[in-house]
Amino acid sequence: MLNEILKDESQRAILYLSLALFAFLMAYLVLAYLLRRYGKNPDYLLPRGTVRQVAIPLFLLVVSLILRMQSLREVLGMGDFGWYFRKASTLLFIFSFTWLVIRALRVVKKLIIAKYDIGESDNLKARKVYTQFTILERIVIFIVIILALGLALMSFESIREIGVSVFASAGVAGIIIGLSAQKMIGTILAGIQIAITQPIRLDDVVIVEGEWGNIEEITLTYVVVRIWDKRRLVLPTTYFIEQPFQNWTKTSSDLIGVVFLYTDYTLPIEPVRKELQRLVSEHELWDGQVANIQVTDSKPGFVELRVLVSASDATKAWDLRVYVREKLIAYLQEHYPDHLARTRVLLQPTENFNPSPPAG
Predict the structure, then answer these.
(1) DSSP states along 303-323
(2) Against a cut of 0.70, is the pTM above it?
(3) Contact 66, 20 (CB under 8 A)
(4) Residue 63, Cβ neighbours under 10 Å: how many?
(5) Among candidates 114, 5, 7, 4, which has minimal Cα distance to 50?
(6) Tens digits of per-residue pLDDT, 74-108?
(7) Most CB atoms closer than 10 Å: which of 39, 144, 240, 275?
(8) Is 119 strand, coil or helix?
(9) Distance (Å) of CA 336 to CA 37, 263, 329
């Protein structure tokens, strides 16, 4: 029976195609089973939806291999269209493999960053990992897509020959294009440098262009800063390499907030210090580290008091400063209203002063 089937070309093609489909199906089911099993194992926990994300690229990869089989063309009666089938198989293989690499890269990213919680108060390490993998993921995806497009185009003989002749005779044009794209290339390299050296990270608190905000997004070419009033400031990545800026969370998120008060020389300082200690000790935003009042300057009309309070991050430090300023002003108004800053004018009569009597 089997020998008779093998003698018939059409039946032999159907048999080979069926065996290939069965083998591919079994390999796909085994791979899906392994992914689901390891996905449920706490030691090899995969992100939810991993099988669904890689299923379509794997299926297309299998289809690209099937298209290359001669048995399929014989079954369909399209043996003369071998070139088209092979070319479609090559392009589909490049497309599906690129898609699979991108999906696998994102799964790996989720596996790594899942160990870090960026929502914690002390999230310096988490923000560092998030920033590195976010930028590096985009770099790898950009490179993979460029390589895939190059391979797809070079699979055509006519394009390959044209490309070789153009590259051989376009030295001057290449130099001109390179000079024209110098700024763009510099911007991309700045994005890579930020990923490696990390002068900024996601959710860093920065002062740029006189604005206070958080780093919301970092790409290869630009950085988005979320301003405190919900505006977005978009800056090129080269800005953070070439221009000075303030990063309040570069090494740690804790900060010391400053409040300035201006009072009269007659104000006793020690009661105000005790009031500050009472205020911060009752407030949840204070981290218990710094709370003090210093006399930092004296002018003819007032004394400058610098109030220092510390908090675990910039947002809490800002809110604590506002709270302390408001409460200390209210305290001075209630207990020492005569000791607030004032302007004094001293009038003294001069010698031989003889005011004229009013007229009439």
Answers:
(1) EEEEEEEEESSHHHHHHHHHH
(2) no
(3) yes
(4) 15
(5) 114
(6) 555 566 666 777 778 788 888 888 888 888 888 77
(7) 240
(8) coil
(9) 72, 10, 10
pLDDT per residue as tens digits for the range 285-316:
898 888 999 999 988 888 999 999 998 888 88
Sorted by where each begins, the domain ranges of the chain are 2-169, 184-247, 255-339
What tokens does 255 get?
Answer: 């900060």
Nearest-angstrom CA–CA distance, 295 and 297 = 6
Q: Are 11 and 41 within 8 A, CB to CB?
A: no
**255-339 shares the fold of 184-247:** no
- CATH second-level architecture of 184-247? Roll (2.30)
CA distance 142 to 195: 15
Write down the residue that tokens 């092979």 correspond to: 86
Place of tokens 């299926």: 59
Contact of 272 with 293, CB cutoff 8 Å: yes
Q: Which two tokens stand for residue 25?
A: 């199906």
d(CA 10, CA 8): 6
Element (DSSP H or E) covering residue 86: helix 82-113
CATH 3.30.70.100 fits 255-339, yes or no: yes
Residues 354, 80: Cα–Cα separation, whole Å: 127
